Amino acid sequence: MYDGTLGVIGAIEAVRALRESGFSPRRSISVVMFTSEEPTRFGLSCIGSRLLVGALQTKALDDLKDASGVSFHEARNQAGYEGDISTVRLDAQSFSAFVELHIEQADVLETTGVNIGAVTHIAAPAAAEVTFEGSGGHAGSWLMKYRNDAGLAGAQLALAVERIALDRGDDCVATTGKFEVFPGAINSVPKIARLGIDVRDVNLERRDSALQDIEKEMMQIATLRNVTANFMVNNRDDPAACDGRVVNAVIEEAAELNLSFSQMVSRAYHDALFMAKQFPTGMIFVPCRKGVSHRPDEFVDEHDIHNGVAVLAGVLVRLAGEEKTEL
User: Fold this and answer.
1) Do residues 150 and 227 lie in contact, with contact meaning Cβ atoms separated by under 8 Å?
2) Average pLDDT in the 152-181 region?
3) What CATH topology corresponds to 126-236?
């Protein structure tokens, strides 16, 4: 897999190449590998970067448990992370800039034949859980006109989620990525439907208005189908704008290497989203085959990896080679 791994190995390779070239930075260069960037068994992504910049208070970890009742602290101790977690918060002066190399996780670069993506904004993600509850019953005994089918209510809302995002243009995306029905038997009318909905946008107002419209739609569907409904937002993060100086460094380095580039928005979760709360931040995207990610066939061509690492190394030279008095 290349998602995340490329950023870690690529950064190590970029630093190795700079060292071998004899480059002597004015500023220290650190390679950071974050823990728990993907949504974890505790239902929260980017735990490492959230803690580093204070976007997550350490006390909040005390209440985190997985589906089996294992606490966050028990899990981290079992994994060998036994240090005092309250000490991980970074000082605002720790870094003058943060740069993350990543696969695009979409097909824009590949389909347009562009080598490098210079990320300008990282979308604001929010996660909501919707539960519908009807009366259930035997699939053969209950006449269609008397049913309060929670599954159909869920299906109707899933279609509404798609429409609500489409109505807001390309920068808004929404996904019903989780859809469970209970009791889940072919001969039972669904009594409960539980949906996990992900909404993202670079514009916070537009993202939140989409969430509000989804909740309104849920209530209308519940009334229409005579079921109860509950709407809960589990997580809501703000968007991030990448630092202009870092973005320009990516663009300038790509141009110097004769690589084509495009300014673009990231709609995926990244640790950069949280690092940007405290440090000037930028991201470098490289193409991935057919835009595939989070699947076993995720793939990035070696040539594109080389391009990404080369741009990263050049960006590090531009940023770490600056006089400290200039920042």
Assistant:
1) yes
2) 96
3) Alpha-Beta Plaits (3.30.70)
